[in-house]
Amino acid sequence: MSSIPHFPLMIAGINKSQAKHTEVYSPYNDQLIGTVDQADHADVDQALTTAHALFRDRSQWLSTVERINILEKAVAMMKDQADTLAAGAAEEGGKPLLDSKVEMVRCIDSIRACIDGLRNDAPHTIPMGINPASQHRLTMMRKEPIGVVVAVSAFNHPLNLIAHQVGPAIASGCPVIVKPAENTPLSCFRLVEIFHRAGLPAEWCQALLTENHDVAEKLATDSRVGFLSFIGSAKVGWYLRSKLAPGARCALEHGGVAPVVVAEDADIDKAVPGLAKGSFYHAGQVCVSVQRIYAERSIARELAEKLAAAAEKMVVGDPLSDKTEVGPIIRKGELNRIASWVQEAVDKGAEMLCGGQTLPHNSYAPTVLFDPPANAKVTQEEIFGPVVCIYPVDSVDQGIVKANSLEFAFQAAIYSQNIDTAMAAADRLDASAVMINEQTAFRVDWMPFAGLKHSGLGTGGIPYSMEDMQVEKMIVVTSKGIS
C-alpha cells in the first residue's frame, strides 16, 4: 500500500488526518492506483470562504506579470513531466497511451493559449466626443475577474479538461476551486500541484473531491460563486444551473449524439479512417464522438462494410500499451448499459456488422450497426461507447432532417466532394460547428466549443472561457483637455 499515491484535500489551511477517502481503480485491471480525501460541508465552506476573501481583497490580486510567469513555469514543468502525466491519465481513465500523450500535448498548448490571451489582451474604448453630451470625455473598457470560479470536471480528458477549466481561471485572475471526476481525480491533483510549485499560492487554486452529491451541490451553488464551469451529464448540469445564486454565470458542457451526413459523391476511402477514429476514440467516451451516420442509400452499405472492416482491425486492450487503439469503459455499469443498448437495437431490427461483444478487462468491441430503428436508444440518446450506426437515406436533405431530429446539438459533419452540397448542409445542420470532410470529434483548443439546445450552454475554448470568467468595467475620464 505504501507505493499507492494518496492525495489529501487541497484546501488552503486544512490538514485533516482522519478524512474519508475515495479509492481510485484502474478501469482496465481493477487495481487500486490511488486514494484521495473527501471534503465534507465544513471543508467546502472553508474552501469557499478562503477563495471569496481572496477575491474581495484586491491587494492580494495577482498582477498580469505574475500570472504569466506562473503559467510559463507551469508549462515548463508539464513538459518535463509529460510522459509521466500521460501514463497516469491512461492508467486512471483508460484512454490509450498514444491518445493520452496527444492529450498531454494539448494540455500544455491550452496553458500556452492562456498565456497568449493575457499577452494579447488590451483595453478598448467606447466612442465619445460625437455629440454635446459626450464632449471632453475618454473611455477605457478594462477587464476584471468575475469572482470565485468553481470547476466541476469530467473523467474522459482528465488532463486537458482541467487545463481548460483551471487555466483560464488562473489567467483571468479568479480564485478557482476544482472538483475532478471521482474516477479520474489523480491527474487533476498532479496538475494543481504543478501550478502551486510554479508559484501560484495555494489559496488561488484549491482541489477537492466531495463525500456526496449534497456537498458537491453546495460547492457549485453557493452564493460566493461567481462562475460555474460544469462538464458532465445534462441532468446534473441543468439542475445546478437552476440552483445558481443570483448574478452567477455558468458554462455547461453536456453530451451530443453527433450526426454525420455522407453524400453519394463522398470519397469513402478517405472518409473511413477519420470516421473510425471519431467513432472509437477513447472507446466512444467523448461528447462529440461519431454516433449517427446518415449515408445516401447508394453508398451506405459500402461505407458501413468498410467502417466495420476498419473497426475489426483495431487493437482493444491495455491502455498503457503503445499498440492499443481502444481502451476500457470507465465503469462496469456503463459497460453493461452499452451492451444492453446494442442488444435492444439488434432485437428491433438493426444489423450488426461487427462487434457487439463484451471483452475482458471492462472493454467492449468496436461495434458497427446498420440501420437501427428510429426508436432504438442508440438512435435517440448518447451511447458514450464504441458504437456507431449507419442509416441509409434517400437524399442528403433527408439525412439532414434526421440529423436535426433530436434535442441535442453540438458538432456535426458533412462528407461531399461538391462544395455546393457541403455548404448547403453546413448551413442547415443544427450544430455549433460543422466539419466538412472531417469527423465530428475534431477540435483544437483555441476554437469555440459549444453545446446547443440540450447539449449545453455557453462556449468553451481557452479564449472564450477567459472571456466568460471576466467582467468589463468602463472608466470615463472627463477633462476639458480632451477635445
Strand order of the largest sheet: 13-16-17-12-11-19-20
What integer is the average pLDDT?
96
Count of individual helical segments: 15
Outline type:
globular
| Annotated CATH topology of the largest domain | Aldehyde Dehydrogenase, Chain A, domain 1
Rounded to an integer in angstroms, the radius of gyration calculated over CA atoms is 24 Å
Q: Architecture of the largest domain, according to CATH?
A: 3-Layer(aba) Sandwich
Structural class: alpha/beta
CATH class of the largest domain: Alpha Beta
| Number of distinct beta strands | 23
**Termini separation:** 74 Å
Share of helix, binned: 25-40%
Give the number of domains.
2
Spans with pLDDT under 50 lasting ≥5 residues?
none
Q: How much strand content do the residues show?
A: 15-25%
Major sheet details: 7 strands, mixed
CATH superfamily of the largest domain: Aldehyde Dehydrogenase, Chain A, domain 1
Written account of the structure:
- Helix 1 packs parallel to helix 7.
- Helix content is 39%, strand content 21%.
- The strands form six sheets. It has a seven-stranded mixed sheet with strand order 13-16-17-12-11-19-20, with helices on both faces.
- The longest helix is centred in the first third of the chain and has 24 residues, at 97-120.
- With 483 residues, it is of the alpha/beta class.
- The protein folds into two domains: 6-254 and 455-474, Aldehyde Dehydrogenase, Chain A, domain 1; 259-436, 3-Layer(aba) Sandwich (Aldehyde Dehydrogenase, Chain A, domain 2), CATH 3.40.309.10.
